[in-house]
């Protein structure tokens, strides 16, 4: 199966282990909210500043709004994100006993949490299968003809139908790395290890 070859080559290229190790679901959730509409470096800086000061729902709610905004300022849209983060913390404490829910259906009820954020939290926070689709996964999946879709939401839906479940946890990490390094909006096809499997590369 061609997808097996593609995932094997990318796994070797980016030294991806078969299983993604899980981290603190709350930190993954908040970091993914911070990652919306910004670059990875900005997300990393904002997350680090926030979690050094407050890393639980209770601790974040103790922060004044201005202080929270200043901590996450590098992520951009910090006023809107600060408001959403406080709302998320309140709901998690009130309705989920301080724990992030571990299903997509429950997570997308939280303010500012869409399917991408929920899937990323499922995979990286809980170590459960999920199909996390961002711009990289959407773009590369279409270039590889794994799907023929117009939006990331459609890509997630189609990949859930066609992608073997053994790849659900790793496809995001691999395609994000590949998108950042090679398969950009203007692809560097001459440097691509999977170009023979791609119409654009051919």
Describe the structure.
- The protein is an all-alpha fold.
- The chain has two domains: 85 residues, Helix-hairpin-Helix base-excision DNA repair enzymes (C-terminal) (Endonuclease Iii, domain 2, Orthogonal Bundle); 102 residues, Endonuclease III, domain 1, CATH 1.10.340.
- 57% of the residues lie in helices and 0% in strands.
- It is built from eleven helices and no strands.
- Helix 9 packs across helix 11.
- The longest helix is centred in the middle third of the chain and has 18 residues.
- The chain is elongated.
- The mean pLDDT is 93.
What is the top-level CATH class of the largest domain? Mainly Alpha
CATH superfamily placement of the largest domain? Hypothetical protein, domain 2
Helix and strand composition category: mainly alpha
Supply the number of helical segments.
11
Largest sheet, strands/sense/barrel: none
């Amino acid at each position: 199966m061609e997808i097996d070859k593609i995932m094997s080559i990318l796994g070797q290229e980016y030294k991806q282990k078969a299983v993604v190790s899980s981290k603190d679901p709350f930190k993954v959730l908040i970091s993914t909210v911070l990652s919306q509409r910004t670059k990875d470096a900005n997300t990393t800086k904002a997350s680090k500043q926030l979690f050094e000061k407050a890393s639980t729902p209770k601790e974040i709610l103790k922060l004044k709004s201005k202080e929270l905004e200043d901590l996450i300022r590098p992520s951009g849209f910090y006023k809107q994100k600060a408001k959403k983060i406080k709302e998320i913390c309140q709901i998690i404490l009130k309705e989920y006993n301080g724990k992030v829910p571990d299903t997509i259906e429950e997570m997308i009820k939280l303010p500012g949490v869409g399917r991408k954020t929920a899937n990323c939290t499922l995979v990286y926070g809980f170590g459960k299968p999920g199909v996390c689709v961002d711009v990289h996964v959407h773009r590369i999946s279409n270039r590889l003809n794994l799907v023929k879709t117009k939006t990331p939401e459609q890509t997630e839906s189609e990949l859930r139908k066609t992608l073997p479940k053994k790849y659900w946890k790793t496809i995001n990490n691999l395609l994000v790395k590949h998108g950042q390094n090679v398969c950009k909006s203007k692809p560097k096809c001459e440097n691509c290890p999977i170009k023979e499997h791609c119409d654009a590369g051919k």
